[in-house]
Amino acid sequence: IPWFTYSRLRPLHTNAVIFAFGGSALFATSYYVVQRTTHARLFGGPLAAFTFWGWQLVIVLAAITLPLGITQSKEYAELEWPIDLLIAVVWVCYAIVFFGTLAKRKIEHIYVANWFFGAFIITVAVLHIVNSMAMPASLTKSYSAYAGAQDAMIQWWYGHNAVGFFLTAGFLGMMYYFVPKQAERPVYSYRLSIVHFWALIFTYMWAGPHHLHYTALPDWTQSLGMVFSLILLAPSWGGMINGIMTLSGAWYKLRNDAVLKFLVVSLSFYGMSTFEGPMMSIKTVNALSHYTDWTVGHVHSGALGWVGFISIGSIYYLLPRLFGRAAMAKPQWVELHFWIATIGIVLYIAAMWIAGVMQGLMWRATNPDGTLTYAFIESIKATYPYYVVRFLGGVLYLSGMVLMLMNCFMTIAQGKSVKAPIPALAAHA
What we know:
Layout: H1 6-38, H2 47-65, H3 81-103, H4 112-131, E1 134-138, E2 141-144, H5 148-183, H6 190-204, H7 219-231, H8 233-245, H9 258-281, H10 283-289, H11 293-322, H12 331-364, H13 376-414
Antiparallel strand pairs: 1-2
Helix pairs in contact: 1-2, 1-3, 1-5, 1-11, 2-3, 3-4, 4-5, 4-6, 5-6, 5-9, 5-11, 6-8, 7-9, 8-9, 9-11, 9-12, 11-12, 11-13, 12-13
């Protein structure tokens, strides 16, 4: 059945995780955070509702077209030109709502979370529009405006910065609001958060070529990408330390606060992923890791651990407040979800790391006469046990999400309404 082949399910999977799950989480949290930190309602009236329905339409169209094999064959940018145009329109409206709200803020200061959300919105717009430029041949087919090594370079400038801005800067905006709120502590170092912002957005832009080591891309470009990837470790870890140290004086809260556990462990996975990424960008390491399941393990420590956990923690914080509830309907389920998901991630990524290193070593092993020691199929066969562990880890993580879904529905349907206390504002001269 062609709809269920790997080549069609894989882009459906990546688009669902990045744009359907991640994108929806970013829309929701950025709209909430910008209103709370500016003391202003969303700009544009029904425009915010349009961004919701427009984005859901994009998700539905992706779910239909990708299994049918309608694709541009560009990683994370597979969707064909009519859907690309819809994404661009929705995104411009998103920018109008977000920056319009900032423009009418009641407070002079722009909180750092909004800096990250703003950078993510602007950059994703530029990346999407430039990389998706194409010549339509029909409603379901188009040809890229670029070719050869230039096409590859622009694709991975987009691809890596989709990770850098969509999956990092946007979620750092989440982190800088929800971690201090849940911990009931100010950000550890506000100055560090500003340095973190500028260092991150400058450096990330240059790191894309590390996806193209040992290809037709000019060698100097590969080396430049490697150098900037290594530099990227500093701002990334600066942000992680800033987030974790926000708990200074409140570490005891981790014992009983499952939501805080999600947020803090997400930062740990962020730190781990942003150490592993620069390490894998080193050419000699990349020679071993490229095309192996090690890369899959790296991606999932970031996607499940960082993006997943920070989103889950933020949603657990948001949902009761949005529906006027005292807490989640089943607080003990939140704790259970945390442990199920954490064990699931550890099983998943550990299996992929071991399998990936093993694959890399098997592929490069040679006999004294220069012939390959192992046939490719032997490396596949040796990987099977690790795929079983990966499957178990994935099932655990999925079970946690099902538990969360049930808890969310129960909170909305059965939770007891409470009136939120409104603190008195300090008088301004």
